[in-house]
Amino acid sequence: MIGDNVWLDAFVRLLAVLGLAILVVLILTYVERKFVGRIQMRLGPMRTGPYGILQSLADTVKLVVKEDLRPASADRWLFELAPIAAFVPAFAVLVALPFTDSWGVRVLNLGLFYVVAVSGLSVLGYIMAGWASDNKYALLGAMRSAAQLISYEIPVVLALLALAMVAGSLNLVQIVEAQGRVPFIVWQPLGFFIFMAGMLAETSRRPFDIPTAESELVGGPSIEYSGIRWSILFAFTEYSSMFGLSVFGALIFLGGWNWPLGLDLGWWWQLILIFVKATLLIMATLWMSATFPRLRIDQLMGFCWKLLLPVAFLQIFFNGLILVYKWPDWALLLTSGAALVLTAFLIYDATRVRVPVRSAARGVTS
Amino acid sequence: MTVEQEHELDTLEINVNVGPQHPATHGVFRMVLAIDGEKVIDLVPHIGYLHRGAEKLSENLDYRQAIGLQDRTEYLAAFNAEFCYVMAIEKLAGIEVPERAEYIRVILAELNRITSHYMFMGAFSTDIGVFGTAFTYGFREREYIQDLFEEVSGDRMMYGYFRPGGVAWDVPDNFKERVRWVCRQTRVGISDIDGLLTNNEVFVARTRGIGAISLENAIDYGLSGPVLRACGLKVDLRREEPYSIYDRFDFDIPTGERGDSFDRYLVRLEEMRQSVRIVEQAVEQMPDSGPILPEKVPRRLRCPPGEVYMRAENPRGEYGIYLVSKGGDKPYRLKIRSPSYCNLMALKEMTVGHYVADAVVVLGSIDIVLGEVDR
Amino acid sequence: MEVKKAAATTPPEAETKAPTEVAVEAAPGTLRKSGVEIEAERLRPVQVEPGKALYRQVLPGVLQVPADLVIAAARKSSLWPMTFGLACCAIEMMATYMSHHDLDRFGIVPWASPRQADVMIVAGTVTKKMAPAVKLLYEQMPNPKWVISMGACATNGGPYTRYDRVLQGVDKIIPVDVYVPGCPPRPEALMDGLIALQNKIMEERKKIG
Amino acid sequence: MSPEELQEAPVVPPPAGSVADLFVAVLPDVEFQATQGALDVILTVDRGDVVRILRAARDDPRLDFKYLRCLSGVDHMEAGLEVVYHLYSYTHKHNVTIKTRLPQDDPSVPSVTSIWKGANWHEREAAEMFGIFFEGHPNLVPLLLPEDMTDHHPLRKDSPLAEIEEWQAERAGLAAGETGEAEE
């Protein structure tokens, strides 16, 4: 606590988190270009600074001094407020996350609930942007993002509910401490799978990037935005929500600041550990987004409602059973793992090429 | 008081204008989609944004000068387009082509078919939403073949290397080794693309059953090439009316069953393997030395009056050159029957009833080249 | 909704704040114009009005010199072209983005929407049917913006210059900063053109608002 | 090339047993002139018979031309315009070229879109490039050229090429405005 003034303390902490968010966004944009570049057998940025490390800084300066256009037919206030409306929820997620066992802006008793509730609000910004731009692509993109984000909230909430049942708390600090030496990903692999799908959907990364689908909608809600407003709407919102959700996932599924072997080396190491775990999640996201094609809207919805939602309910049911009858922990792993295998089989079955691929082309040949 | 009769909810169709500048239109194609929610209920294609008069200009150029315009018309498979054009002149003027030149032409044309299909793999997967990864894979392999073309012809894209009666100059000394190396490399590249896309769950989900067209309709619309073969008809002009020396090679004609986007993709993938086979056979059979142009080709080429419709199997389908000569050293009329133009006609038939996202996939699966559509 | 009115670009109905407007269709009720008149109207060149940047009005003179330097350096390091292929040259442009040549090394990544683009690479033949769309796209880009004319066709019509549906050079309708020769230019030539544009941005850092 | 130098191709009767004989067998009452071209047999028919012949060509099992390869227009200046149909049969593997002449002052011919759907764009293209009117075409609006600029037909022989711009012409050693025959 800085001084005795609660308000000053909160303000300083907020500033620190905001600075962190900006820094992380700068680093993430650079890392993404490098990482995706390597996947695509390219080098990524090389010329701006050594190994291109100043690239995202140059992009930011350029975007800030670029002309900020507003289409003549756009709805003025909605158009200008939409980036803020999209960014604030993404930033508000960071407020409730504990980065070590003793440091966060505010540690809420209902932290889990708060994060899930607030992160869904950025859809409002996208809809405002899509509506105000007076552009059909933007409108289609906004409608798609509304449908997608709201749908994916539901299985994610159920999966996290199942997890909260195991942890016995909604307080993020207590959830981390409840994990101890074995993180929840071991007991709840299905929950982690659903959470990852939801995180990809929330941040509009492939294969769930249909709101911004570049080859169809040219960028979706952000199509008419330029300059600083575009960078807030697109880069800041997307990357800071990606960062926030990764830290969140690292806290609740990967054991937070707990070393796997039960060491405790103080807050500095805890911070590093959190970031390493969050980076792992981010890298997984980037990897998926660089190699997967995009789903179609009906397939996306079908995946959510017909597959994720039932198995999430199943998970809650089994967790309840196990917790009530005080069965041992490995029963959690057993049920969750079995449900995950079932899910994977269903996905495989739905997209299986019935005719063997080689003979499909060659079958009728001479 | 009576309850008013309930009305159905009124929905508004909106027209979405895709193109001419749009990342998925492969150039400057434009289509206007009438959509109801996410479903396409009507599609109006607009072309002509790249209409630059290759036919008209060819009428004002020497027979040999017009070869350059063929390159620029079909810029993804320029060797194939040149091949068809010079064969039309040869048929009309009665020029015999030396053996060695035939082999060089066939090797280059088949390799160009592979580069064109690589381009398709990249562009098609990008339409589906892969973030450029398949594109870079395809282009890496394409560059290897492009390097070979550059060594032979001196240019990366607009080769201008074929001549009526043969080829412009002899190939480099290490041509055969280079071609063999490229073939080995291409086999690796094809399996890379195969592994990245063919069994990808999302890729299959996005392409299977999308843009299917029945065989009767396909023939009625005059489709040709992989789009037609994906419907199950086993036709290939290289087999049907063997031109040049294609009757000497052993190769399969891959066909599909459903005529959907996935089958088109598979047919193209298999065609690349078959092209490698043809090239490998051709390299083995190719004589090591010999003339590359017949002895008596006049400096100023004149065709006797007459007309010919020469057709060749290009990567995108049947490429036809309708050449009318009335004597003299210029074509009197040159009509290019471009496969993409004809295949594009069926776009509406394939797209209507699918989702907006599928419109892009169907367009990508036809594999159009705008230079050839608009000429 | 009207379909024809949309001058055939992404974002279709968007009007920009740019000074000139594109006349796409004669107003209903007026006398039908001849093709030549319509064409002349469509192909009227874009008027460029120099603007003054905000930081120039706000910052004191002493600070403007380093600000110029930083901003110009940032601009030249992050040139985002619009994905905008017209014809054959577009294939070479794509080849330049791909792994062999990799324009991302220079911080150059393509963006699909003109609103986020800084530079327009006109890669290919501009026909008179396409010209209004090219002009509209140019107007939709926010300032500061640059144009690279890639290849012979965009520069003066190239091999197609004598066909009367082809524009004899894109500089007839929009101002061009760098011309890249070739038919089509090799990827190295395009990179050279982009580096020339970077140098130009550094040299002209005082002029650009 | 000046109009006087133009030579017409000689009429070579096709060999016996060619597609021309099949046409005679299928449509005994229709007159046409058969020529052996460089690759295919060419039948020149009257424009009034076009639809009848082509429909028979598609539907008769002996001919079975299901595939319309190409439809082109040709401008023969004083001799009129010409519409050329290239047909192919997937079952019998034979080709035929059918031509019909139209006078310059009344270039109209019945549309064949009702026979092959694939004729649609080909006819639209021939219409805008040559000014041929296809009777019964469902949507005969320009395809490649802008819809409101149909003053001239680019592929006609009387439609000149554009002038090279002055500065370009000076460099090339040509006077501005010289077209077409400049480099002969």
The CATH topology assignment of chain C is Rossmann fold
Count of domain modules of chain B: 1
N-C termini distance of chain B: 68 Å
How helical, in percent, are the residues of chain B?
40-55%
Strand order of the largest sheet of chain C: 1-2-3
User: Could you give the count of β-strands of chain C?
Assistant: 3
- Biggest protein-protein contact in the assembly: A-B, 43 and 48 residues
| Beta-strand percentage range of chain C | 5-15%
Low-pLDDT parts of chain B are: none
User: What is the number of strand segments of chain B?
Assistant: 8
Structural class of chain C: mainly alpha
User: For the record, what is the CATH homologous superfamily label of chain B?
Assistant: Cytochrome-c3 Hydrogenase, chain B
CATH-defined fold name of chain B? Cytochrome-c3 Hydrogenase, chain B
Name the beta content range of chain B: 5-15%
Helix-and-strand structural type of chain B: alpha+beta
Number of helices of chain B: 15
- Number of folding domains of chain C? 1
Mean pLDDT of chain C: 76
Spatial shape of chain B: globular
Give me the strand/helix succession of chain B: EEEHHHHHEEHHHHHHEEEHHHH
**N-to-C terminal Cα separation of chain C, in Å?**
38 Å
